[in-house]
Amino acid sequence: MSPAFCPHIEWFQHEVVNICKICSYKFTRFYSYLVTSYNLGF
């Protein structure tokens, strides 16, 4: 899993949870989109 970028703190990876709520919310939506796309075969 690639790391995502949080401009408010710094680079983080999936095992690190100390990111701000805004970025975690955006990242959760983005990850859900990737999972949905993968499940649909895109």
Q: What would you note in describing this structure?
A:
The two termini are 18 Å apart. The protein is mostly helical and 42 residues long. The chain has one domain (4-40). The chain has one helix at residues 21-40; strands spanning 4-5, 11-12. A hairpin with a 5-residue loop joins strand 1 and strand 2 (11-12). Residues 10-16 have low confidence and may be disordered.
Query: What sequence of helices (H) and strands (E) makes up the elements?
Result: EEH
What is the 3D form? Answer: rod-shaped
Number of domains: 1
- Strands, count: 2
Q: Write down the overall mean pLDDT.
A: 63
Major sheet: size, sense and barrel closure?
A: 2 strands, antiparallel
- For the largest sheet, list the strands in their spatial order: 1-2
Number of helices: 1
Q: Tell me the span between the first and last alpha carbons.
A: 18 Å
Helix fraction, binned, reads: 40-55%
Unreliable stretches covering 5 or more consecutive residues: 10-16
Specify the oligomeric state.
single chain
- Class based on secondary structure composition and strand pairing: mainly alpha
Spatial extent as radius of gyration? 11 Å
**Strand portion, in percent?**
5-15%
